[in-house]
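Researcher: I'd like a candidate sequence for this fold, 251 residues long. If you have to choose between options at a position, lean toward the conservative one.
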């Protein structure tokens, strides 16, 4: 059974997030199957760019994830999580069989002034079931104190809406856009700047327990708090793309 799909630019087939132009080829890989890419004649996927090595790399399907080897000598390969959050994996030159955990990935192969993008789908991810269910983790259930959440966030609370507004640019893939200021969030949520500042402080001190940088000037401390909140929220999936529905429509 194929567990990995690789969509490459050009050729007949389906269009999608990695297509370059109106159509793209799709390669289907079962566990153990390999797909090489580069500008050479002996590769499975030919990339027409003089900056790309003849054998640039290899994708290997491995159950519900995949492995990436970078056979080049000069440039790293970058694999981005297409589903947002700014996550990425950097595979350095000559690195072999780096595991890639994302369900939908953009593999960016660098060329002059651009990248050649391959989209890799790994839709068969396996998850442990609940206690007593098929696939449950042995020994996960039993007597004892209830496990407490390390991040006790109430998604119906106003502070969570402030956190979503802070993360909005990153969730929408706008990685180069500056984070919203307190005033920006106030305008977005019809709150005063002071109210937004209170919620940011509450998130830092009570909910996510982010340590303050008392040695920084006040303006820089506020900026650092916003950056730290967004980094932690996205790193641990506390805020996800579906939470954008909690925000009001843009005016």
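Model: Candidate sequence:
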């Amino acid at each position: 059974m194929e567990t990995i799909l690789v969509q490459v630019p050009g050729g007949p087939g389906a269009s999608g997030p990695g297509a370059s132009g109106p159509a793209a080829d799709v390669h289907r890989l079962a566990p153990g199957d390999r797909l090489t890419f580069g500008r050479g004649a002996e590769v499975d996927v030919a990339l027409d760019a003089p900056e790309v090595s003849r054998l640039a790399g290899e994708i290997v399907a491995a159950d519900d994830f995949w492995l990436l080897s970078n056979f080049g000598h000069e440039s790293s390969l970058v694999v981005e999580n297409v589903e947002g959050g700014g996550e990425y994996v950097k595979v350095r030159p000559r690195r072999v069989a780096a595991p890639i955990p994302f369900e939908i990935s953009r593999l960016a192969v660098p060329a002059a002034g651009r990248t050649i993008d391959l989209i890799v789908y790994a839709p068969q991810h396996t998850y442990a079931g609940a206690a007593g269910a098929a696939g449950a983790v042995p020994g996960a259930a039993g007597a004892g104190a209830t496990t407490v959440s390390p991040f006790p966030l109430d998604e119906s609370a106003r502070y969570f809406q402030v956190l979503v507004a802070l993360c909005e640019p990153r969730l929408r893939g706008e990685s180069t856009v500056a984070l919203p200021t307190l005033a920006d969030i106030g305008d977005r949520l019809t709150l005063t700047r002071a109210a937004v500042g209170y919620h940011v402080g509450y998130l830092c001190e009570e909910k996510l327990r982010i340590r303050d940088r008392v040695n920084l000037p006040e303006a820089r401390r506020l900026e650092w708090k916003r950056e730290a909140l967004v980094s932690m929220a996205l790193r641990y999936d506390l805020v996800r793309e579906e939470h954008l529905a909690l925000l009001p429509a843009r005016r």
